[in-house]
Amino acid sequence: MPDPIELHVRLEGSGPPVVFLHGGGPGCSSWADFRQSAEIAAPQRRRLFVDLAQYGDSAHGPITGPGWDHQAACLLHTLDLQGLGQVDIVAQSLGGSVALTLAAQHPDRVGRLVVTGSQPVPAPDSAATARALVREARSRYYGGEGPTPEKMRALIARLEWFHPERLPSSTVMLRYEHSITPWAMAGADGSGRGEPQDLSDLLAGIEHPTLWLWGSHDPFAGPDYAVALAASMPHADVSVLARTSHHPQEERPHAYGRIVREFLERKEDQ
Questions:
Q1: Could you tell me which residues are beta bridge partners of residue 245?
Q2: Pairing with 241, which of 41, 92, 152, 212 sits 20 to 30 Å away (CA)?
Q3: How far apart are CA 23 and CA 117, in angstroms?
Q4: How many helices (H) and strands (E) in the chain?
Q5: Domains within the chain, CATH numbers bracketed
Q6: Local structure of residue 53 (DSSP, 8 states)
Q7: How far apart are CA 128 and CA 41, in angstroms?
Q8: Which helix (H) or strand (E) holds 236?
Q9: pTM, entire model
Q10: What CA–CA distance (Å, rounded) separates 125 from 215?
Q11: In this predicted model, what pLDDT tens digit does every residue of 126-154 receive, in sequence order?
C-alpha cells in the first residue's frame, strides 16, 4: 500500500469540525456533492470538504492493496496535518465506506457519522447489480469519444437524481471538470483504485452514533439495505428521504441538511 498523502481540503466556517466526504462516481468531489447542503447541516461548524485520493484536487497515482484502508490512512494523515483531533463526518457512497473504516481503525478520531448511499458490505441480492452499474457507467462515460458535459448529465440523471430535470448545469460542469484531470483519466476504467473490501466483521464494533441517511430510490441498494446495516450496529439510526436517488443531499439539500443538523446536535441518543 502506498504512503498516505495530504488530501485537498476546502475550508468554510468556524467552530467544531465536521468533515464532508464525497462519492466515487466520475468527477465527484466533496464540494460538488455537498456544497448545497453543508451549511444547512452545520451552520456553526468548521466545514472541511475533503477530496479523497484520485478525486477532485487530490492528485494520486494507482492505489495498491485495500482501497478503503489507504483512503482512511490519507484522511487520518490530513486530519493530523490540520491539527484536528476528533471530527464528525458526513459522507456519501465511497466516502461513507472510508469514514466507517476510519471509525473502526481509529475510533478516537471520529465522533458522529452520517452515511449516505454507501455499500461497506456487499448486499446479498444487489452486489452484482451495483458492480455492473458502476462498470457500465464508467464505460459509457469514458468510452467512445470520451467524457463530455452531455455524457456527465446523462450519467447523473440515470444513477444519482430522482428528478433529473432539476439537475443544475453548475453541478454537471463541476463534475465534468474533475472527471478529466490526469489522475481521473488514469483510473477511468476503475483500475488502480485499490482492492475491494468488506466491512462485515467491523460494523458491530463501531460504537459511534451513526445515521444511515438514504435516498428512497437509490439504484445501488434500497433503504432495506440501510436498515439491515443499521441493525448490525449498536448505535445506528435510519432516515429515508422520499423522491431522491443516490444523491439526496443534492436533490433535497434543505431536508437533508435539517436531518443532519438535528443528528449532529443531538445531546444523547434515545
A1: none
A2: 152
A3: 8
A4: 11, 9
A5: 9-265 (3.40.50.1820)
A6: T
A7: 33
A8: strand 236-241
A9: 0.96
A10: 18
A11: 656 777 888 888 999 999 999 999 999 99
